[in-house]
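S.,

Sequence below, as promised.
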Amino acid sequence: MEPTPITLGPFEGLHAPGDASMPPVVLVHGAFSCPAQQLTLLRAFSGAGFPVCALALRGHTARDADRIRGASIMDYVSDVRAMIGLIGGTPIVVGHSMGGLITTKVVSMGGCRAGVLIAAAPTAPVRMTLPSAPTFLRLLPRVLMGSTLQPPLEALRRITLRNVAPAKHDGILSTFVPDSGVAFRDMVLGKIRVRRDDIRCPLLAVFGDSDLLVPPSQMRSTAHRLGATIHEYPGSGHAIFEEPNGPEIVGRIVAWCIAMSGSPVLESAK
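The prediction came back faster than expected:
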């Protein structure tokens, strides 16, 4: 079923109903992103029968854009936990990029069926890649001040969308929005920490070895430390599910989630 708009409490986004016997899937978008960038995942999970929902974090819609100022990663974690409460059930939480970091923290707090980290920021200070360094250094003063950020479209095209077909670039770029410098600083400085013992549900880490934004070595290290199942794809970059091999990768993510649908729900070890 094609995803349709939904409003749940203070959150806006997209959803598709599914089989009530399957756990809900909650999609968590990344920095400068919004639910419109998650249509590929929404359609894949919906096609497999999952009830699936992608809601915008605070400040990521036109209606509440003013709420982006000063928002932290833990504010976004609180948002996702509130979304889960509104959706109900014991979800599989799937996060991309910064959304992967948020997902890591959310699943560590218990009550989730499983977690999927796609090209996820690590639970450690993020090391700059050489291609991303000029853009990062350009943004650094605003990051340190916690100001609202808007990355240059040229940098997004060159780094984030490097492996995406050029014909898709303009459509994807039109969906990027400003984000919080405070949250970005939290992510870059590795302020969100999660212990392996905190993870009480199955965890899958999906990433490419050609990611120019988050170093693959850090994603690999974080996944090993947290005991995640690792799916690493040669030649894939940061916008992994929009790239030529995206359908195959998304299919494997969905298949893993189907296999995990019967996993017991355990509370955090905290």
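The chain is about 35% helix and 15% strand.

Coffee later?
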